[in-house]
């Protein structure tokens, strides 16, 4: 077993939606600041669609994009992997190289679906609304996950909805 913590970072609506038309179905400035603080310096693993929706590598952290295509991105700041297993292995290597003890898996839906069984921790922003969307997050099974930290976050000036930030650790 690896000594690097595999953490999923996600924002999820009450009805399990995380995305709509290649974007997030809300604006949560407060959560984006938390996301940056959680991931800065740590390798981030994402699928190609998530990378495309961001449009560029996230600064200040090694970016690893999973794609079945061989030359999907021509950016020297983005590492390529062809599977989640390969991406996690590369992320763990980069984390050790940089003295980090955690990697962050940041989406999207297909990647979360594969990664939830491999993750050690979930950092979930529960968006307190139900929204329409086309991408969802797997159900969080309370038999497998236990909430270890909960923070209620009222909607700020630049937030569409109030949220509840919860850290879940694998039981």
TrEMBL record:
Domain of life: Bacteria
SUPFAM superfamilies recorded: Dihydrofolate reductase-like (SSF53597)
GO BP annotations listed: dihydrofolate metabolic process; folic acid metabolic process; one-carbon metabolic process; tetrahydrofolate biosynthetic process
A GO CC annotation given for this chain: cytosol
Keywords: NADP, One-carbon metabolism, Oxidoreductase
EC numbers, comma separated: 1.5.1.3
Top EC class for this record: oxidoreductase
Gene Ontology molecular function terms on file: dihydrofolate reductase activity; NADP+ binding
Domain DHFR residue range list: 5-170
Catalytic activity field: (6S)-5,6,7,8-tetrahydrofolate + NADP(+) = 7,8-dihydrofolate + NADPH + H(+)
Pfam families noted in UniProt: DHFR_1
Annotated metabolic or biological route of this protein: Cofactor biosynthesis; tetrahydrofolate biosynthesis; 5,6,7,8-tetrahydrofolate from 7,8-dihydrofolate: step 1/1
Membership in a protein family: Belongs to the dihydrofolate reductase family.
Biological role: Key enzyme in folate metabolism. Catalyzes an essential reaction for de novo glycine and purine synthesis, and for DNA precursor synthesis.
PANTHER family documented for this protein: DIHYDROFOLATE REDUCTASE
The protein's name: Dihydrofolate reductase
Biological source species: Rhizobium grahamii CCGE 502
């Amino acid at each position: 077993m690896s000594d690097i913590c595999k953490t999923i970072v996600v924002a999820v609506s009450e009805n399990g939606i995380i995305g709509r038309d290649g974007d997030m179905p809300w604006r949560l400035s407060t959560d984006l600041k938390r996301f940056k603080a959680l991931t800065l310096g740590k390798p981030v693993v994402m699928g190609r669609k998530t990378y495309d929706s961001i449009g560029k590598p996230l600064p200040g952290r090694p970016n690893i994009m999973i794609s079945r295509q061989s030359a999907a991105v021509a950016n020297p700041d983005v590492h390529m992997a062809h599977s989640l297993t390969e991406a996690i292995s590369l992320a763990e290597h980069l984390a050790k190289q940089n003295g980090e003890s955690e990697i962050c898996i940041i989406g999207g839906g297909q990647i979360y679906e594969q990664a939830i069984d491999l993750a050690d921790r979930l950092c979930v922003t529960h968006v307190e609304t139900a929204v329409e969307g086309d991408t969802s997050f797997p159900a969080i099974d309370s038999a497998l996950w236990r909430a270890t930290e909960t923070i209620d976050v009222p909607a700020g000036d630049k937030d569409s909805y109030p949220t509840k930030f919860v850290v879940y650790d694998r039981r």
